[in-house]
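Hey,
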Amino acid sequence: MLEPYDFWIFLSASFLLWITPGPDTIYILARTISQGRLAGLLSVLGVSAGVLAHTIFAAIGLSAILATSALAFTAVKFIGAAYLIYLGMQALRGNRKQAEVTGVVAQSRSQIFGQGLLTNLLNPKIAIFFLAFLPQFVAPDSHSSSGIFLFLGGIFVMGSTVWCLLLVVCAASFKKAATSNARLSVAVGRITGFVYIGLGLNLLRAKL
């Protein structure tokens, strides 16, 4: 059973985590500024879906494999880092190729959503985070611990999604300014590519 006191502590801790800039925040802002509001919104939904998946994995015990197996953790880490670096290279290459400079190659909605989803699914640090964070608010001897785990994870994902959507709305205004300025648009495209590459390299530093 989840005590009201524990729930309010969970909400307070979650709020601080939501507003603290992290890799997801940087990824979403870069996507929004380079591609616009719709791309930002789809990226938020993709990232949130990835976080929700990790919540489910943690609830059923799959994430524990990453926490206890150095081989599994390293494999997922390298795949995730390679994927982020690939996105960065694609952004840089697209920035050079386009006749009308927008900083990125045109993508479908499903591609943008899928990329946001994969950036989180392939990040073992998120799985470890949920294994460390959520159990603090769930009694280990509770018969409904999995249900409470999923409930808290859902609350966390909802709050994080709302916060990121607000960031997208704010960042989208900068996209309009970049579109009207060719040099600024080129710079945004390059920065976006380097941001993705930087996130990938940072993921390579992750350890158990």
